[in-house]
Every structure is written in C-alpha cells, then in structure tokens.
C-alpha cells in the first residue's frame, strides 16, 4: 500500500520523539528510514486486517492514519505473542533428527529473534537468515509476519514428520546425505518424502 | 530521503517567527537577527542537516541555539549570524560523531561551557579540539554523563591549564617576599 509521505511524517515524528525520549530533535537518516519503515509496516498490518471491511483510509470520513497505525502496532504485538506460543508448542516435542542446521535455526535463531525483536521501532526486521529452508522456500514477508508464517510451517512439518518413526526419518536422511548431521541443508520433510517415493518404487 | 526535506519546508514559517521573537531576548545582549539573516540561518541549517545526513523533527534547535549562546561574552553582534551558523553546523556534526549518545541539551551545554572557559571564543578550537575529544572519549566507552557534566572536560583535557591554586600560592609567596 502506498501512503502519502505528508501523512506519514507526523507519525514518524511522534515515533522519533519516543525513540529519543524527546532528548534529541534530530536523528540520522538511517534511523529515520527505520522509523518510517516501522510506520508503514504497522499500517500495512492494519490494512491487511481491514481489506475485507473495505475501510476508507483517507478523506473526510476515513479512519485517520494515526489511528490505523496504532491498530497496526497492536496487531504486530499480538502476532508476536501468537508466534511465541507457536514456538513454545513446537519446543514441547521438538525433534531435530540430529540435523545441526535445523536445530540451530530453531533452538538458537528463533529465541534470538524474540529477544531482539522490537515491534515499536523496527517491526519490519527479523534479524535471522533462516538457514533451515521451508519446503516451498521462504515467503516474501519480513518482520514478525515472516517468523509467524515460518513457525506455522515448521509446526505443520513437525506434525507430518511425526507420522514416521524417528529411525525411518534418519535412514532417509542418511541415504540422502552421508554426513547429514553436518551437511544436510535442505528441508527434512522434502527429503523424506522423496526418499519414501523412491523406496516405494524400489519395493523397500 | 528527499521525503524528509518536506519536514523542514513545513516548519519554516513557525521557525522564522520564533527567531524573530528571540530578538526580544537577545536585544539585551546587543544581538539581533534580521528577517533575512534568520532565513539564511535556516537555509544553512538545512544544508547542515543534509551534509550530516540527519532529519529534524519538531521545533528544531535554532531557538535553543540562540538561547544558549546569546549571553556568551564571546558571541558578539559582529558576525553574530556566522557564529550561530558555525555553532549549528558543529552541533549536527557532533551529534553524529558522538553517535547520538549525547542529548541536545548536553551537547549544547558542553559547547557553551567550553566556548567560554576553554576556547575563550575560538570556534576552531571548540570544534577541532574540545568536541573532537568528546567524540573520541565517547567512542572509547567513557561515561557520557561524566564528561558532559559541568567541569567534566578536565577528564579528557590533554593540556595542563591555568591553575588558580598555583597562581594564588605564587602570589602569596611573592607578597611574603620569598
């Protein structure tokens, strides 16, 4: 969604005041760019929620952009909490099958995201490279949106994989890549499914 | 970042009015900015912001700049605009150089104190020695609050300066005929 910069500036100025605790009247370009990104991210979040209700943003009878921003911010915070609860759920029965890339992404990367994530000043940033790939690649999202979708997919994947006995999954991975613990960098479910297909054809 | 230039445009009129009002205060010190000079100061401010890649929101620093320096014995009617222009340029430069770890008020009071007590009006010395040392000290991890507190410059000063104590002792010695 495109917004008129004149309408965004008062919100960016308000956010800048908060960012500097009103102790600095100016900020570097990079910080201003980050805050502008934060504002548009929250607005987009609110717009996504309101697409179905054909909300009018501008104009006399429209919802003021400032109100929309605050709604968007609340949605971002809410999404972060939901992402955290999905992550907690995943952790309860998390199985990494010995794949280091998978384990590091889920056990080190994602917690680091929750520590670093700042929904107010930088909700558009997710900080992670997400080294463990999803089956269909990473969605073209950023910030908590990306993490939320990623965790939802990981949860689904864990459920699918739990259908197979652990030894079976490991056997598939070993067949795919000798030193799979260190060297396997692809999606586990994808590898298991392909190997299962092959074994079925071979009658194993 | 062209987008942010809009902010400056929007507040030009307000700032010009504020600067005109400031003349009532600065008149006590024989200082005043004409309408044209106020405009020039704002143009130079915009140039400084662009040069140091900064965006300014709200009231800006011009009013504060005038307030802080108008009663300095080293700010005179002769070259008033040039002095303010140089000071504001330094201000933005050192907001960057101190990595924004110093607040506006802290930087202004540091500049004012050093201008009067260490530089004795020498703007070059303020910029290239005092402020440079402040920035370097902050980069090396020294506590900002200590350096910018009144008298805190001595923590980073590298020259031995006039010692009132020594002077008084020498004076006393002389009177006592030693």
The N- to C-terminal Cα distance of chain B equals 69 Å
> How much strand of chain B?
under 5%
End-to-end C-alpha gap of chain A = 53 Å
Rg of chain B: 19 Å
Shape of chain B: globular
Low-confidence stretches of chain B: none
- Please work out how many helical segments of chain A DSSP would assign: 8
The total beta strand count of chain A reads: 1
Please report the total strand number of chain B as a whole number: 1
How would you name the oligomeric state of the polypeptide chains in this document?
Answer: heterodimer
| Largest inter-chain contact set | A-B, 20 and 23 residues
Describe this entry's structure for a reader.
The complex is a heterodimer of chains A (204) and B (178). By secondary structure, chain A is mostly helical. Helix content of chain A is 64%, strand content 1%. Chain A is built from eight helices and one strand, in the order H-E-H-H-H-H-H-H-H. Chain A has helices at 5-19, 29-50, 65-92, 100-116, 143-161, 166-176, 180-183, 188-202, and one strand at residues 26-28. In chain A, helix 3 runs parallel beside helix 5. The mean pLDDT of chain A is 90. By secondary structure, chain B is mainly alpha-helical. In chain B, 63% of the residues lie in helices and 2% in strands. Chain B is built from eight helices and one strand. Chain B has helices at residues 5-26, 35-51, 62-69, 80-97, 104-117, 123-139, 144-148, 164-175; one strand at residues 54-56. Chain B is globular, with a radius of gyration of 19 Å. Chains A and B meet through helix 1, strand 1 and helix 2 of A and helix 1, strand 1 and helix 4 of B.
């Amino acid at each position: 969604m495109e917004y008129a910069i004149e309408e965004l500036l008062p919100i960016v100025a308000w956010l800048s005041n908060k960012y500097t605790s009103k102790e600095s009247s100016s900020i570097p370009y990079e910080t201003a760019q980050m805050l502008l990104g934060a504002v548009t991210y929250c607005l987009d979040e609110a717009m996504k929620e309101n697409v179905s209700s054909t909300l009018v943003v501008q104009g006399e009878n429209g919802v003021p952009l400032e109100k929309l921003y605050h709604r968007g911010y609340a949605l971002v915070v809410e999404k972060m909490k939901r992402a955290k609860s999905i992550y907690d759920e995943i952790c309860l029965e998390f199985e990494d099958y010995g794949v280091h890339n998978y384990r590091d992404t889920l056990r080190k990367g994602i917690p680091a995201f929750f520590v670093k994530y700042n929904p107010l000043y930088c909700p558009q940033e997710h900080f992670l490279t997400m080294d463990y790939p999803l089956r269909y690649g990473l969605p073209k999202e950023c910030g908590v949106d990306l993490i939320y979708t990623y965790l939802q997919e990981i949860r689904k994947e864990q459920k699918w994989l739990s259908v197979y006995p652990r030894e079976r999954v490991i056997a598939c991975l070993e067949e795919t890549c000798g030193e799979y613990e260190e060297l396997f960098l692809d999606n586990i479910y994808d590898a298991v499914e392909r190997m299962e297909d092959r074994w079925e054809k071979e009658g194993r | 970042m062209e987008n942010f230039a809009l902010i400056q445009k929007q507040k030009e009129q307000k700032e010009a009015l504020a600067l005109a009002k400031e003349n009532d205060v600065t008149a006590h010190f024989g200082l005043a900015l004409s309408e044209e000079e106020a405009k020039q100061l704002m143009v130079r401010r915009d140039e400084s912001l662009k040069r140091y890649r900064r965006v300014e929101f709200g009231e800006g620093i011009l009013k504060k700049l005038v307030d802080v320096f108008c009663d300095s014995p080293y700010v005179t009617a002769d070259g008033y605009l040039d002095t303010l222009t140089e000071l504001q340029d330094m201000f933005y430069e050192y907001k960057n150089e101190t990595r924004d770890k110093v607040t506006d008020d802290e930087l202004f009071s540091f500049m004012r104190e050093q201008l009067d007590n260490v530089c004795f009006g020498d703007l070059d010395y303020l910029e290239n020695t005092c402020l440079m040392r402040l920035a370097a000290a902050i980069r090396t991890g020294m506590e900002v609050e200590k350096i910018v507190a009144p008298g805190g410059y001595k923590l980073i000063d590298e020259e031995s300066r006039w010692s009132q104590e020594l002077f008084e002792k020498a004076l006393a010695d002389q009177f006592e005929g030693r």
